[in-house]
């Protein structure tokens, strides 16, 4: 088994086809196919399921890909540790939508200016999906709300976030969940941590929301709430950045539901130089230095 074969597996998995992977690797497709088949014969297992023009990871391939990503990352780390070079290559990051929109543009811009040879790739998603992607090796790190407990993960605090409840502009003050029991709410899918906080706010006050409408954007939630159709829970920083924020009324929540910490998390066994440099830029952002620590899921 060679590093070149592991790279082929990773590129096919990410690109979805031999042709696309060959372009990314600057090889001819027949060479990529041959090297993949040689690896599968050596392993005694098919890593991909062939479906017409596309390849889909098999169960064995999913397991193997995680190891392949980690070996390739360690190989790059080892090379850079003795080369004296600045960090280079891809750094795959994930973030909550609100964090990506409000908190990290300045940070990533400063990082790019300092380390221009690092290719930053940012994707957004829900906390649960992002954590799974970090665990599987698809992402090097992700900005999620914490704390998170998992034996394979570690991380550091990055940003403070405040959640606010929004209603139609003519809504009377909302003091507690019982004031709005049975009211429709707008939220992301069930693996969204902010939705779980919203549901806990109702549950711990002996109340229950009405129908939960699942939307895919904060802008959609704001529009529905402004039209008088229900409630939503949004990060205050995200709401502040939205042009039509004056069309809704903002209600404060108790601190245990309102105050959220955004953490950058990564696998314990991942020591990419580029990631280390990003962490070094994040930690001094706090008034009081917060060292990397274990997080809770």
Describe the structure.
This protein is an alpha/beta fold. The chain is built from twelve helices and eleven strands. The protein has helices at residues 3-15, 18-25, 29-43, 59-83, 97-103, 105-114, 127-136, 193-203, 218-226, 236-240, 255-258, 273-282; strands spanning 48-51, 54-57, 89-95, 118-124, 141-146, 153-168, 185-187, 212-214, 231-235, 248-251, 259-267. α1 (3-15) crosses α2 (18-25), α1 packs across α4 and α2 crosses α3 (29-43). The protein is elongated. Residues 287-297 have low confidence and may be disordered.
Show the helix and strand layout.
Blueprint: H1 3-15, H2 18-25, H3 29-43, E1 48-51, E2 54-57, H4 59-83, E3 89-95, H5 97-103, H6 105-114, E4 118-124, H7 127-136, E5 141-146, E6 153-168, E7 185-187, H8 193-203, E8 212-214, H9 218-226, E9 231-235, H10 236-240, E10 248-251, H11 255-258, E11 259-267, H12 273-282
Parallel strand pairs: 3-4, 3-5, 7-8, 7-9
Antiparallel strand pairs: 1-2, 5-11, 6-9, 6-10, 6-11
Output the CATH topology of the largest domain. Answer: D-Maltodextrin-Binding Protein, domain 2
Envelope shape: elongated
Structural class: alpha/beta
* Share of residues in helices: 40-55%
Q: How many discrete structural domains? A: 2
**CATH first level of the largest domain:** Alpha Beta
The overall pLDDT average reads 87
Please report the distance between the alpha carbons of the first and last residues: 35 Å
User: What series of H and E elements makes up the topology?
Assistant: HHHEEHEHHEHEEEHEHEHEHEH
Low-confidence regions: 287-297
Radius of gyration: 22 Å
Corresponding CATH architecture of the largest domain: 3-Layer(aba) Sandwich
> β content, as a range?
15-25%
Strand elements, count = 11
Biggest β-sheet strands, sense, barrel: 9 strands, mixed
What is the count of DSSP helices, taking H or I runs of 4+ residues?
A: 12
């Amino acid at each position: 088994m060679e590093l070149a074969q592991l790279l082929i597996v990773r590129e096919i998995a990410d690109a979805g086809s031999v042709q696309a992977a060959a372009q990314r690797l600057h090889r001819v497709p027949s060479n990529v196919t041959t090297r993949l088949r040689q690896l599968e014969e050596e392993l005694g297992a098919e890593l991909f399921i062939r479906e017409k023009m596309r390849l889909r990871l098999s169960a064995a391939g999913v397991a193997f890909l995680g190891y392949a990503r980690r070996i390739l990352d360690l190989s790059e780390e080892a090379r850079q540790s003795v080369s004296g070079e600045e960090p280079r290559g891809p750094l795959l990051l994930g973030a909550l939508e609100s964090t990506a929109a409000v908190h990290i543009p300045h940070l990533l811009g400063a990082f790019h200016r300092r380390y221009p040879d690092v290719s930053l790739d940012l994707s957004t998603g829900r906390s649960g999906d992002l954590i799974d992607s970090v665990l599987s090796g698809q992402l090097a790190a992700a900005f999620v709300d914490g704390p998170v407990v998992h034996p394979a993960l570690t991380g550091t605090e990055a940003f403070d976030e405040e959640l606010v409840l929004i209603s139609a502009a003519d809504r009377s003050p909302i003091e507690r969940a019982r004031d709005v029991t049975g009211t429709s709410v707008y939220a992301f899918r069930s693996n969204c941590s902010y939705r779980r906080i919203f549901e806990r706010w109702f549950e711990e006050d002996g109340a229950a929301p009405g129908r939960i409408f699942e939307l895919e954007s904060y802008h959609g939630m704001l529009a529905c709430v402004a039209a008088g159709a229900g409630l939503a829970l949004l990060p205050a920083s995200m709401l502040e950045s939205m042009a039509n924020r004056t069309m809704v009324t903002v209600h404060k929540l108790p601190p245990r539901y309102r105050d959220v910490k955004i953490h950058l998390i990564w696998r314990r066994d991942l020591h990419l130089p580029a990631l280390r440099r990003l962490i070094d830029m994040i930690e001094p952002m706090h008034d009081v230095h917060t060292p990397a620590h274990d997080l809770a899921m």
